[in-house]
Amino acid sequence: MSVLLALVAIVYVVIVPTVAFVALRRTARLRQELSVLQTRLGQHGPASEPKAPLAAAEDAPEKRRSSEPLISSPAQASDTVSADAGEEAVAPPAGASGPAGRWHDPASTPTPLWGKKIPGGEKIPADGEYEMTSKWLVWAGGIALALGGIFLARYAIGVGVLTPLVRIVLGLIAGAAMVSAGEATRRWSVTSRFRIAGSDRVPAILSGAGLITLFASVYAADSFYGLIPPPVTFVLLVVLSLGALALALLHGPALGLLGLAGAMVVPLLVQTDAPSPWTLFLYLGFVASIMIAAAHYRNWSWLGWTALGGSAAWVLVWLAGGPGGDGGGDHVPVGLFVVYIAALPLGFATYRLDGGAPFHLPGYVRTPLFVWSAVASAMAFFTLRVWAYDLVSLLVLAALAGLYLASAWRAPVRLGLVFTSAVAVLAGLASWDVPALVPEDFVPGLDVFGAAPLPAPAFEKFAYVAFGFAALYFAVGLAAIGRVRFANIWAALSAGLPAIILFLAYWRWLDFDTNQSWSAIGLGLAAVNVAAASRFTAARGPLGAYAVATIAGLSLAFAMTLQEAWLTVALALQLPAIAMISTRLDLKPLRYVALVIAGIAMARLLLNPYLLSYPLGATPVFNWILYGYGIPAIAFWLAARRLLTVKDDSAVQVLEAGAIAFVTCLVSFQIRHGFVGSLGAEYDDLWEISLHSAVWIALSYALYASGALSRRPVLKWASAILRAAGAAQIVFMHVLVLNPAVSPIYVGEWPLFNVLGLAYLLPAIFAIAYVRAAQEKSDDLTALIAGGFAVGLIFIYLSMEVMRGFRGSLPYLSGPSEAERYAYSVVWLIYACALLGLGLWRGNRLIRLVALGVLLVTTLKVFVFDMSNLTGALRAVSFLGLGVVLIAIGYIYQRFIQPHGPRDAPAAAPDRPPDKTGDEPAT
User: Fold this and answer.
1) What is the DSSP string of 158-222?
2) 671-680 long-range CB contacts below 8 Å, 24 or more apart?
3) How far apart are the C-alpha atoms of 513 and 574, rounded to whole Å?
4) For residue 561, which of 610, 628, 513 has the smallest C-alpha distance?
5) Fewer CB within 10 Å of terminal CB in the chain, N or C?
6) Name one Pfam family in it (predicted).
7) CA–CA distance from 74 to each of 71, 79, 694, 845 (Å)?
8) DSSP 45
């Protein structure tokens, strides 16, 4: 049995490939002979053959191929028989259907090659049958061939037929045979005039199966059986991988991918007791170089990027093992490898270096080179974190930054690479003193990059590194302006990155605390940018970039020196200067800078909860609120007016809104300081709340009544917001929550000059003023709402004054008396009559209707409440007075108000037309 199995194995791995190879050779020879025979038939065709059908076939090849058979009919054959006695009759080949006849010239009737371009013809679309036989069956056959060999070997091993050495030798023989068969098939396909369907895939599949077999045999000889030492195994596997790449140049990219996969997994397959990073990364660098060269030669860009991706994966795998055990010795080969593979594609990637299309970052980020630069920058950042910012990791990051700057200098369209390295630099500086980026148990059982805690950082090293990178970007960007394309982007890099680095240093090491020494650095940065800007007075882009950096340096200097409100004041004072420079020099970027600074100042003064705890002092008015909000309000308004002379944009609108908000806060906070002495005190005093409401309504009215309201949308919205806030506070706080009738509130001793006048009468006066302003602007809706608000507030105020007159300064402590109830009726009747008189005087029907509404409320009150609660003379007088007033109002309406206008003489009735008969109409 064992001998039989051994014979079967030998037949499978030796005889079958040999027989297949011989069969292919013989088939090729037969096809060549058939081709020669057909050529002879075409050359000795009859001279009397009609030419018109042939010409028609040449004009319409698709029609000829689809409709004309390969063999002519008998009638056609008899008509075209040659008269030449020497011409031989040729019968159709065996197996051909139809009677014997003449063969067509292969040149005139090309044989269809499915899915291939036929010389002199057109591409014939491949059908399902061809797809299945030429592609899927070939691939399935290759897979079955490989699996069959594996299963046979497993069976032979399981029954113990073959010794380890025999197994390895047979595997090597089988692999070599399949590779040889694949190469022979490829050469035959190239030299043969006839191509078998799918023959272009057969060589690659045979060679791939053979390479896999050779690879598995070598690996098994080392790992399973120990027949060869690891160094020999490593060399053999590398040779096989490179051989696969060499065959890929002949057979196609599939073998190239196979060789790349094999080359990348070789270090994982060959184990050693003392892995050397020098050996590993020198090998990986060699493999990456070979793969990228082959990809460049055959235009297989995906193969090169895949090789780089595999190299990056190896770097991450190595870094995941820890920072190394020899104090930095292992870091050098890894660092050199990172820099090498980062630079490797730069020599092969081709870009336009002339003055072509402008640089467009959103489109550039989709290019493979940009994506690879991001991967390389991420690897440099990981080395910083894993190696605890040692010298090698810092040199790797510096080399990467310099490499991409040099590449962008040579090819300016690669400026996107500079952005990726700059992000890695900024990320490294921002996380310098962070012990761990993620918790150590972020992923259980996995050492995540950045999870290991770093040692205590040294400020001196940080300072040198930060200054070095800032100087690098500043100097290179400054030198590139005027020498390299895209001067504006170079200027932005040169001016912006040093300012960002200074901000990160201020954040990481001072935590936004004040330090006079650091403010000198900010002033120095501003001075350097001023000097750089003086070189480009005629170039608007670079001048604007360095002007923005100058402002950033000054702002950082202010932040490092000043605290609390003074910092906001300093930032706001820059706005008029920025606006003046922007308008004089026509620097549009400064408008966006003004917008950013305005946003920061508004956030600090309007959204900062810590300002509620700022000390105010005991002196009213003269406190930090006065300069903390007053100076920014003036600065915002001046900057907005200046920028408005050029353009009305979002910067102007934000500055206007900020000025109005600061003025509102200035007045409101001064009121709080005057009443409670602190900005964080409870908000429950009706005196203070009434004054706030009055101020908001007054400011809203001032904005609404100004002539610029229709031209400035910000003023319109600010007026609407203040009006809505004041009205909402009056309704919810004055009327519902803090109403003296239901809350223990001291209203004052004097009539009119008390909290009631402040809470109800003063807002009613502003509402009346709103009515007049709205009528002048033909704003009917605002006039109607303001008028109703005024009528309601006056009604409440009169009622509250009656209550105060009877109950005293604390009306909440006692209930109403009969006299007080009667007084309500009298006052409401007088108020209704006053409204009615006003409506008659102004000729305003709406006011008269409101007066009737007040009168109806009074009538209901008398009939419902007075009848049940009053007694004696007060009840009688209440009804008598109500009756007199109602009759008087009825008389006034009959006397002065006509339902259809004044009583003029009735107009003469129009003459009726005469009847058709001509008679006068009957009376």
Assistant:
1) HTT-S-HHHHHHHHHHHHHHHHHHHHHHHHHHHH-SS--TTTTTHHHHHHHHHHHHHHHHHHHHH
2) 671/695, 673/616, 673/620, 673/623, 673/625, 674/620, 674/621, 677/616, 677/618, 678/612, 678/616, 679/611, 679/612, 679/613, 679/614, 679/616, 680/612, 680/613
3) 21
4) 513
5) C
6) DUF2339
7) 9, 9, 114, 112
8) -
| Per-residue DSSP letter, 84 | -
Among 419, 420, 375, 379, which residue's Cα sits nearest to residue 396?
Answer: 379
Burial environment of residue 732 by CB neighbours within 10 A (0 to 12, 13 to 18, 19 or more): exposed
Rg (CA), the chain: 48
pLDDT per residue over 398-429, tens digit each? 999 999 999 999 888 788 899 999 999 999 99
Q: Identity (one letter) of the amino acid at 674?
A: G
Dist. CA 909–CA 366, nearest whole Å: 88
Q: How far is CA 199 from the centre of its chain?
A: 48
Whether the CB-CB separation of 433 and 381 falls below 8 Å is answered with no
Give 711-751 pLDDT, tens digit per residue: 788 988 999 999 999 999 999 999 999 999 888 888 888 87
**At 560, phi and psi to the nearest 5?**
-80, -10
pTM of the model: 0.65
Phi then psi for residue 899, to 5 deg, are -70, -25
b/e burial code for range 52-67 (CB count within 10 A of at least 16 → b): eebeebeeebeebbee
Domain ranges of the chain: 1-39+141-273, 483-561, 816-899
End-to-end CA distance of the chain: 142
Only one residue has tokens 């040169």, namely 494
Residue 875 contacts residue 866 (beta carbons within 8 Å):
yes
Q: Are 512 and 502 in contact (CB under 8 A)?
A: no
Q: Which amino acid is at 761?
A: L
pLDDT at residue 748 in the model:
86
Orientation of helix 516-533 relative to helix 487-510, angle to 10°? 180
Q: Which of 670, 690, 561 is nearest to 616 (CA)?
A: 670
- Vertex 911, ends 908 and 914: CA angle to 5°? 165
Exposed, middle or buried, 218 (CB in 10 Å: 0-12/13-18/19+)?
A: buried
Mutual angle of helices 202-223 and 164-191, in 10-degree steps? 160
What letter represents residue 920's amino acid? E
Tally of CB atoms within 10 A around 891 = 10
* 3-state DSSP assignment of residue 890: helix
Angle between helices 368-386 and 415-430 (to 10 degrees): 20
pLDDT in tens, 58-67: 444 444 333 3
Give the integer Cα–Cα distance in Å for 440 and 447: 8
Q: Render the burial of 627-639: b for 16+ CB within 10 Å, e for the rest.
A: ebbebbbbbbbbb
Please, are residues 430 and 504 in contact by the beta-carbon 8 Å criterion? yes
Other CB atoms within 10 A of residue 833 CB: 17
Q: What is the amino acid identity at position 631?
A: I
* Structural contact between residues 455 and 433, judged by C-beta atoms closer than 8 angstroms: no
Q: How many CB atoms lie within 10 A of CB 28?
A: 18
Average pLDDT, the chain: 76
| Type of residue found at 77 | A
Q: Report residue 246 CA to chain centroid gap.
A: 43
Backbone phi, then psi, for 484, in 5-degree steps? Answer: -125, 155
